[in-house]
Amino acid sequence: MRERFGAGVTRRMLQPTVNGLFFQDVAGGSAVLPGSLVAFSARGPKAFTLRGGLGSLTSALAATLDVEYDVQVERVERPGSRGGAVTLTTSRGVRNAGAVVITTPAGPSTAMLADPTPDEAAVLRTSYSSVVLVGLALEERLAAGELGGAYGVLVSPESSSPLAALAVHSRADPAAGGEVITVMFGHDAAQRLMSADDETVRAAAVEALAPVLPGLPGRVTDSHIARWPEALPYLHVGLAAAVRRYRERLPVGSAVLLAGDHLGLPWSDAAAFNGRWAADRLIADRAS
Ligand SMILES: Cc1cc2nc3c(=O)[nH]c(=O)nc-3n(C[C@H](O)[C@H](O)[C@H](O)COP(=O)(O)OP(=O)(O)OC[C@H]3O[C@@H](n4cnc5c(N)ncnc54)[C@H](O)[C@@H]3O)c2cc1C
Known about the structure:
The protein has helices at 2-5, 7-22, 32-41, 55-62, 106-112, 118-123, 187-193, 198-209, 239-249, 268-287, and strands at 73-77, 86-90, 93-97, 100-102, 128-138, 152-154, 163-168, 179-185, 220-233, 256-258. By secondary structure, the chain is an alpha+beta fold. The model has no long low-confidence stretch (mean pLDDT 93).
């Protein structure tokens, strides 16, 4: 990484960005990730959010579909012959389907796929960063000068702070009443806190914020904690070639396809792109 971008840019810009947005060590993945971030930043992006939360996007997409929730898929078995049904063993019994697109993270996908081919195994060899998020609700918004008026703060992995990043809700949505500060622990702290109780995690978040927001404990009115052991997939060197090989050599008429963000860059555009690829591939196979 240092060879490609130089030591100064890597240390001052890329490390805090990759740590703060992806909870990852910049040296652990391909230079394509920081390269894409630099290209994205050059366009002067602005922070936006969806009122009601980002979950409202997936709820809207699912609203016109027949969706079964709270079902854990345990096993996916391909049909014995072309045109047969895929068999899914789930926490609510067996389901059959004409085709299945698996979009779970690499760990569960590997566990459920009964007989992975070498090409599938190659794209599922992905490791993840972990994160613990704490949303701290305040009655009043942060004052204009607090945190320098910024929407977000990226923390250098060289600092002694356990945090990777902070985000200030009212600065993404000026119409918001009150305030929510999202406190994001870095990978190592997240692993330590993953099984800690909520009170311990909340206290750790408030303590970690104290140096930059003095007086915070008395202002917090509520909190919400989210834990992601498999938060964001690493983009390993060689993944793009493995994905290309998988797609090029996938037999026509395959009834099980792999998608999800881990077959590309670790953000929702990649998840949408890969899902679209799988849908297009199924449609094309059916037409042939
Ligand atoms: C803290 C955080 C902040 C982020 N912020 C942004 C952002 O601002 N912008 C952006 O573009 N991206 C962001 N991302 C990344 C984005 O969330 C992911 O890239 C995207 O959600 C990946 O979509 P996906 O469909 O591949 O997988 P996921 O959204 O991870 O969906 C996988 C689903 O599979 C389900 N599942 C797992 N195992 C099983 C099983 N055995 N049976 C049935 N279901 C199972 C899970 O419950 C989950 O619903 C963020 C990620 C994190 C962790």
